[in-house]
Amino acid sequence: MSADSTDRAAGPADPVSPATHTIGYVLKMYPRFSETFIVSEILAREAAGEKIVIFSLRPSTDARFHPELARVRAPVVHVPRSSVASRFWAQFAEAAASPALAEGLQRALPELLEAGHDDAQQAVALAQSAEQAGVTHFHAHFASMATSVARLAGMISGLPYSFTAHAKDIFHEDVDPAELQTKLADAHHAITISGFNLEDLQRRFPAETSRLHLVRNGLELSRFPFTPGRNVRPADGDPPRLLGIGRLVEKKGFHLLIEAVSRLHSLGVPAQVSIAGDGPLRSELQERIDGAGLTSWVRLLGPCTQEEIGELLGTHDVFVAPFVVGADGNADGLPTVLLEAMARGIRCVAAQVTGVGELVRSAETGWLVPSGDVTALTKALLEALTLDAGHLALLTAARSCIEDHFDSTSQAATLRALVHDPQSVSCRESLVGSDTATTTVPLPMMRVEEPV
Length: 452
Hints:
Blueprint: E1 22-29, H1 36-47, E2 51-58, E3 76-78, H2 87-96, H3 99-114, H4 117-133, E4 137-141, H5 145-157, E5 161-165, H6 168-171, H7 177-186, E6 189-192, H8 195-204, E7 212-214, E8 241-245, H9 254-266, E9 272-276, H10 282-291, E10 298-302, H11 306-313, E11 318-321, H12 336-344, E12 347-352, E13 367-370, H13 374-385, H14 390-405, H15 408-420, H16 436-439
Parallel strand pairs: 1-2, 1-4, 2-3, 4-5, 5-6, 6-7, 8-9, 8-11, 9-10, 11-12, 12-13
């Protein structure tokens, strides 16, 4: 496949019958508060008539959940995992009693013995559960643990597998290139979410990426109505309101947002800031806020549901995503919340890392600034807060970009077509105007903490 790739190859009129397959989604943990994009994808595929079964390799540790989970019809199977190594052989013997799995177990045994205990045991258990559920195709999110288990389970069961690669799973410094190469080569097809990722993987693995496709994460657009309203002209006398959303970890760059707000105040712009999310840097960020004298101006809201995020997007003037590459090499991908902000009609200021520049383009769909540059960030915020008639056109262009390239309905149709025949999907990168100079430079291998 050429470097030209497509994010909207198949449409709703694609002739593939949704009932042809039962897709087994293999996920490290389900549900997960931060992985709303997976829920949106599953909902879109179910709405198109596909049958889904979800396999969770780890129990959820989140305390809060989004209400959209209640709309997912797919059953959730928690794949057993024992701390006792001997349980693997008991699981193996149980599976070998199935005529449908016996030959595959023999074929997979050498790789099962080389795999980690957890992966080996869960692969056997997944193959058993998939047989019972009538699964015809495995799909994993992230090219790490979930894909390792799906690949082995596919080898045992004789089922094809595919996976979606995001960022941490392909750029982490601990990613074994040979293992990733094998996963790409053995997959029925593979997917990645940005042109940046696509070109990087094609450069690194030219022989194994003929079935690698660009399929961007989608939004259920009906849940994100375009309502610029206040976001174009706040009420007279109201201070400007900035919004940041994400886990409180270094790669989100919220320390730069605090510094930029301090500079805005020194320039006579009394901006208020809400930061939604939680994480290990909460105490450190609060200390920065207090030390800068911004205690009454910057609020850390903690984790918020999708409904609460929607309210925040509708009541703030500028969404700020000051991403950085951390000291440990940790960087962000293309966070769903940035798509949501652009869909709703809020002005967006973002820092360029990985594929962000494919979506946010200065003077077209938002303000793109160099990562780590607080001076550029402050200047962009000042421009974004300047009210003029041109901002409505910019917000409209941003919404159009989301509708054209990030609609979960089109995403679901493409995913369905890929399961039917990956070679039938012709891909072309069509985010016209993106700065290829900032989106195609390969990243170094990056260390990325769990979870996102």
